[in-house]
Each structure stands twice: as C-alpha cells, then as structure tokens.
C-alpha cells in the first residue's frame, strides 16, 4: 500500500496542508493513519479517489461521498465473490483493498462488513456463511503469519469465549488478535473453557492484560477462567470485547468494556498496557490484591458477583 | 450562377452577446483571489469553485444551494447551513423538497420551483425567480433566484428575503 505524507497528499489534490486537515475534521476524509512518529500518512488510493471525484463533484461533501462510494466497491466485489463461492476472486478483492488501505482498514472496512452482510443475508447457521467464515478465518490467519515479530514489551491474553469458527463474534476476535500482533504485542488466545494447566502457560507467557472476547460462553464459566488467570498471573487489567451490552458486568467486576471495532479495541488494550507500565512500581503483587479490588472479591460469595465478566 | 449561390444563403440567428460570467466558491461564496485558481476555494478550503452568469452569482453573505438535475442537493453555502439548520455534510444527496418547497401554491408550469430547478440544471437559460419556504415553516418565505452553474451542470438557488 502506497502512503503519502500530508504535503504530498495536499499537492496531489492541489490544496494546502491546512485545507487537508480541515477536511479531515469536517468530513472525516481522507482518513490518515499515523506513522510511528505520529505524523499523518494518507493512503494513495483514498487521495486519488478524492482527486477524481472533485473534478465531477459540486462540493467537497459530494466529492467525498463519491470517493467513499468508489472505495466501497471492494466490499461489493468481496460479497459477490463469496456469494458465488469463488475463493480466488475473494482473495483478489482483498488484494485490491490492500492496495488502497492498511491491513487494519482492509479488514475493518471490507472483510468484516462483507462477512456481516453475508451472515445477515444467509443466516449464521447456513452453509454459505460457513464457507465465507472459513475463508475469512484463513485470510486473517495468513495475515497474522505475515505480521512482524513482537517489538514491544506487551503481552495480551485473549480469553476466547466464542462458540467456534462460525460464531458471528469470532472474526472480530481474530481481527483484534491480528491488530494487536501487528502493533508489536505478543498475543495468546486461549479458550475460556480450558482451565487445566493454565498456571504453567501463564508463567511462560506473562500477560500484561487480559481480554475476554465473545459472548457464547456463560458468565459462570468465564468467571472461573478469570479466577484461574488471576490466581496464576496476579492482578491484571481485564477488558471485555464483544461480550454483550451488559453494563452491570463492568460495574461488578471493574473490567473495561472495549469498543466494538477491533481497531479501536486494540488501541484501547495497548493504552491499558502502557498506562499500567507507566505507573511507578509498587510492592510485589500478591494474590490478595487485585486490579479491581481486594481478596474479598475472590471470596466465594463475591466470586458469584464476578460472573458478569 | 447567382441563383445557385442564393440557394446557399439564408438567415442565421443573431449571435447573442456573451453574458459576463463570475466564479464563486460553492461554500463561502467568495470569488477566487487570483486568475490562476484550482478546483477548491483557497479562501475557505471547504468549497468547489463554480461559474455562473454574473447577474445571478451569489455574494459571500448569501445563502444558496446547488442542486443537480435529479433535484438532489449537492452543496450548501455556510450561510444556508445556518438558515436551514443543517450541515452540508448531512444535506448532500437528499432531495431538495426536504429543505425547500414552493410557497406559492398557485404557481404551476414554468413557475413551479421544481420545474425551474430541472430546467436550470439542464439548460443555460435566464435566471428565474420563485417564492419558497422551508417544509415545516409556513410564515417565513424566501425569494429564490434560480440559475445555472457548473461544471458539472447544476442549478443554483440563491435565497433572499427581498421583495423589490
């Protein structure tokens, strides 16, 4: 994917850099990513689409609308490919999306909306959905294999509470895994149903944050797993992702509810880890002190309260 | 010979004097400050530069709308945003009748607002005038001067409350 600095994008559009930033505030387009040094990086495809649309548009708003439509064509191509069970064409649609966007935006703007459309159209228990979900899972796994090795001291433990690969939440969870990995973190997904041998795994992995993702597994089972994690790894910040919209879970456990979009959620997780690492060191953690309360929280009667996680 | 040549002679319509044209920003209404200008207004950066006949060109403080031949709103000046209580980003691609309707119930044919707009967006005719109001406002009426602008071809509605 080709990216442009602010001055390059402004030059391509024949406007000033200030105008480009004003468009970002007013129209949300073009939507830049940030370089490691926090500078704006525009995707060439977005800027080129806007340049073409400006020639035919009567206002910036209508040109932006037209440019967005041009970019959303990738979603239609992917839906069409998966609808007609053409895997090569589906791969090509994602390649085309990647030519214009980052991996994160290709997943969030093309892959996930296309799969949602197919799920709604055919039903989440249908064979076409299974076909499409299987392809999407494979694509996300391929992308994760191509992710650079971990570059920062951040380890995220994902408690997978989805049903299986066909669970509608599963692709969002896999996308969150991918985004965290691409942000340089180590990521370990574990099913929340597996408690046996958890301490050994966690002592080797040393997570800095725990994300419980998916809404299929019941609160009781999730709470048991979370207790196992806490017993083995001590107090850790806990966040919930695609775990339903029950605010009482957050109130009773102190866990943070992440945004529904994987890109926002991965930024929030990284923020949680950075905030924790920025804190001055305290006395060695004991199992008696938790991130959200004291040992009293782990008493049996309180443990029942924490099932809301 | 002369009769043969006469067969080729015929009256041609008089060439009309070209009307003076004016370029303006579709958002702030300002004219470009230099002769060499791009597609986007350098004053506000939020509008596209369009051209229209000088007699119906809006000024910087005028509320105006740009509407295409399918009666969809394409642009709204900053003053029109305030007047109609809607941002341009929300108004684009919506039907004109969501924002303005004819106030003169008896106007028909060429005086009908929608006809005027379609005509202006498809033919470079003289600017015409209609009386309009917001759909949910019955007491407040505006005079709308409807002309053509572009490129691409569209209708320009400049609103005012003057009746002279």
Structural description of this entry:
The complex is a heterodimer of chains A (309) and B (164). Chain A has 13 helices and eight strands. Chain A is of the alpha/beta class and 309 residues long. The longest helix of chain A is centred in the N-terminal third of the chain and has 24 residues, at 60-83. Chain A is globular. Helices cover 16% and strands 26% of the residues of chain B. Chain B contains four helices and eight strands. In chain B, strands 1, 2, 3, 4, 5, 6, 7 and 8 form an eight-stranded antiparallel sheet that branches. In chain B, a hairpin with a 7-residue loop joins strand 6 and strand 7 (141-150). The chains are: A alpha/beta (309), B alpha+beta (164).
- CA radius of gyration of chain A is 22 Å
- Helical run tally of chain B: 4
Care to count the β-strands of chain A?
8
Helix content percent band of chain B: 10-25%
SSE string of chain A, helix = H, strand = E? EHHEEHHHHHEHEHEHEHEHH
Please report the total strand number of chain B as a whole number: 8
List keywords for this structure.
heterodimer, A: alpha/beta, 5-stranded parallel beta sheet, 3-stranded antiparallel beta sheet, 13 helices, 8 strands, 57% helix, 10% strand, B: 164 residues, alpha+beta, 8-stranded antiparallel beta sheet, 4 helices, 16% helix, globular
Gist?
Chain A is an alpha/beta fold and 309 residues long.
